[in-house]
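Worked example 3 (structure in, sequence out).
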């Protein structure tokens, strides 16, 4: 996945990657990289659980 001109350093193109530890983004132009916290993903899944519960009730 590519995010055009999202780099805070050079405004280059940023790619979303995934490894064993989770997601991270890297800039294709300058090599800037940043980890994306895992709790961002888990909070989304708990939201799904909540919506499922609301549906059952
Ligand atoms: Zn950059």
């Amino acid at each position: 996945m590519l995010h055009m001109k999202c780099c805070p350093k050079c405004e280059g193109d940023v790619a979303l990657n995934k490894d064993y530890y989770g997601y991270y983004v890297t800039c294709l132009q300058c090599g800037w990289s940043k980890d994306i916290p895992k709790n961002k993903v888990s909070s989304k899944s708990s939201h799904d659980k909540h919506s499922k519960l609301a549906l059952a009730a």
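Notes: The longest strand covers residues 14-19. Helices lie at 39-56.
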